[in-house]
Specification:
It is built from nine helices and twelve strands. A hairpin with a 4-residue loop joins strand 11 (236-242) and strand 12 (247-253). The protein is 33% helix and 29% strand. A six-stranded mixed beta sheet has the order 6-7-8-3-9-10, sandwiched between helices. A four-stranded antiparallel beta sheet has the order 2-1-4-5, covered by helices on one side. Strands 11-12 form a two-stranded antiparallel ribbon. The protein is of the alpha/beta class. The termini are far apart. The protein has two domains: 2-76 and 156-253, 3-Layer(aba) Sandwich (Rossmann fold), CATH 3.40.50; 83-154, no CATH class.
């Protein structure tokens, strides 16, 4: 699906990530984790073509990412940043922005575009906020609107940078359940997560980074058992089973 070979990248000629070799698995949820400043967001921005690498090659379906035109690429991948300005527009108007790569020169939505937008709003259970101004919504509601916009863009690959940041626990879990729904729709999700337990619990693959490099890229269980998380974060970890279905959770302590 999307592959990075010998990638190095950074800002103002300063290298942040180096020697990155990774192939994100199609139809999976991959979480990128690591300490602050290790290069998680830089990797996400580079993989999504927002940040141009210093060297190496990125391919989508075996095709060099540089060969895609901007509009063509916007039909294949979408990116939701962590920090965003909150525009003075309605929920419906923002979600419609997701259709822009699919519209013609006049940017006039067709009936099909309107139906896709309405479906995205319905999927996120935002119908009652349709005409609400985005600035009037809570952080959790607003995040769902942005995810609805990503849904409307209808890309196979979705990049999410800290989608649960600044949300209370209830809304964090709601957003992560939505991410699982995106996977069920056939999307490939690549996201940066700060919460280690959530990353291990909700992901199919974990990419653990340290000092701009990938330490291990494997299943959550394999990453947990490697004890690399404990070493990097200087913590101890324990796996526990909770609930009637004995779902695995992870506890970290000093």
């Amino acid at each position: 699906m999307i592959r990075l070979d010998k990638i190095s990248a950074g800002y103002n000629k300063v290298e942040i990530i180096k020697n990155i070799n990774i192939s994100f698995k199609e139809g999976n949820i991959t979480s990128i984790i690591g300490k602050n400043g290790c290069g998680k967001t830089t990797l996400l921005r580079t993989a999504s073509n927002i940040l141009k690498p210093f060297g190496g090659e990125i391919t989508i379906g075996g095709k060099d990412i540089k060969s895609f035109k901007n509009k063509e690429l916007a039909k294949k991948l979408s990116f939701l940043p962590q920090i965003r300005t909150v525009p003075n527009i309605t929920v419906y108007q923002l979600v419609m922005h997701g259709r822009y790569p699919h519209l013609g020169f006049s940017r006039t939505p067709k009936n099909e575009d309107k139906e896709i937008v309405e479906k995205a709003i319905e999927d996120m259970r935002l119908n009652k906020y349709l005409d609400k101004n985005l600035q009037e919504l809570s952080g959790g509601q607003r995040q769902k609107v942005y995810i609805a916009m990503v849904l409307a863009q209808d890309t196979d690959i979705v990049f999410l940078d800290e989608p649960t940041t600044y949300l209370d626990v209830n809304h964090q879990l709601e957003i992560l359940e939505i991410v699982k729904e995106l996977k069920k729709m056939g999307k490939t999700i690549i996201m940066v997560l700060h919460d280690l337990n959530n990353a291990l619990t909700y992901s199919d693959q974990i990419c653990l980074m340290e000092n701009g490099e990938i330490v291990i890229y494997d299943s959550p269980q394999a990453v947990y058992e490697s004890k690399e998380i404990d070493r990097i974060f200087k913590v101890s970890s324990q796996q526990v089973e909770v609930g009637e279905d004995e779902k695995k959770q992870y506890v970290f302590y000093i």
